[in-house]
Amino acid sequence: MTETKSPPMRLAVPSKGELERPTLDFLAAAGLRVLRPNERQYVASIPSLPDLSVLFQRVPDILVKVDEGSVDLGITGYDVLREQGEELTNTVLIYENLGFGQCELALAVPESWVDVSNIEDLAELTLLYKEKGRLIRIATKYPNLTKKWLHDMSIYYFALVEAQGALEAAPSIGYADMIADITSTGTTLRENRLKKLSGGTILKAQACLIGNRRALQADQPKLETTRVMIELIEATLRARGFLSLTANMRGASPEAILRDLLKEKSLAGIRGPTIARVYSKTVVDENWYAVTIVVEQKTLSQAIDHLRKVGASDITVTPLNYYFDSKSWNYEALLEKIKRS
Amino acid sequence: MPISLSSKLEKVRGMNDVLPEEYEASQAIQASLARTFKAFGYRPLDVPVIEHTDLYLRKAGEDIIARLYDFTFQGRRLCLRPELTASVIRAYIDSMQGSGLPVRLCYSGPVFRYEKPQRGRHRQFTQTGVELIGAGGPMADAEVIAMACQGLDTLGLAGYQVVIGHVGILARFLEGLQLDLRLRDFLLTNIETIRTRGIAAILERLPVVFPTLTLAELSSPQDAFGTAHGPALEAVLADLDEPAARSMVLDLLKSMDVELDSARSPDEIVSRLLAKIRRRGQSPRLDRALRFLSELCRLTGEPSRVLQEAERLLASYTISLEPLHQLRAIFESLAPYGGLDPSRITLDLGLSRGLQYYTGMIFEIYHGSPGEERQLCGGGRYDDLVQTLGGRSSVPGCGFSYGLERIQLALADEGRLSPAAPPVDLLVIPVSPQEAGPAIRAAQAFRAQGLAVEIDVRGRSVTSNLQHANSRRIPFAVVIGSTEVAAGQVLLKTMSTGTEQRLKIDEAIMIVKKN
Question: Which value does ipTM take for this structure?
Answer without folding.
Answer: 0.73
